[in-house]
Write a structure and sequence with these properties.
The protein is α+β, with helices and mostly antiparallel strands. It has four helices and four strands. The chain has one domain.
């Protein structure tokens, strides 16, 4: 089994080297600002905490580039609030990352496209057994 930190870095590297957004001048998704670097570091650290919950099926990837509780019953009652807090923190960083990448490219209007592209890539890179939302919003196990 791959080291979760190495896997996360690989996933992030792949995401940051995406093709240009359709219909737009190529966005520099590898752009690095202090805000983006801080967000990536925060997300990388949190990934180690989230990974077991992806594996249990408790959380999954949404089609809009966020994460959500997929099956709260996969968690003991005492873990639900801490996992919900992790989800909220992760989604806050993901939203900020998409916004910062668009802003750093001087095109804040690209945020929705960046979010959509990241959402697709996160799902493509998800491990077998993880849950994600398909285009219609239904949960599917990879």
């Amino acid at each position: 089994m791959a080291n979760p930190v190495v896997l996360f870095r690989l996933m992030l590297l792949i995401l940051l080297s995406l093709m240009p957004l359709p219909g737009y001048t190529q966005a520099n998704i590898e752009i690095d600002t202090p805000a983006i670097a801080s967000l990536k570091q925060s997300m990388q650290q949190r990934h180690n905490q989230l990974e077991p919950y992806y594996a249990k099926g408790a959380i999954g990837l949404t089609r809009d580039g966020l994460i959500a509780m997929h099956d709260a019953t996969a968690l003991p009652l005492s873990a639900r609030q801490p996992v919900s807090a992790l989800i909220a923190a992760e989604n806050q960083d993901r939203n900020a990352l998409y916004r910062e990448i668009a802003r750093a490219n001087s095109h804040p209007e690209w945020e929705a496209d960046i979010r959509s592209t990241f959402g697709q890539r996160w799902i493509e890179l998800a491990r077998s057994g993880w849950w994600y939302q398909n285009a219609s919003g239904s949960w599917v196990r990879k």
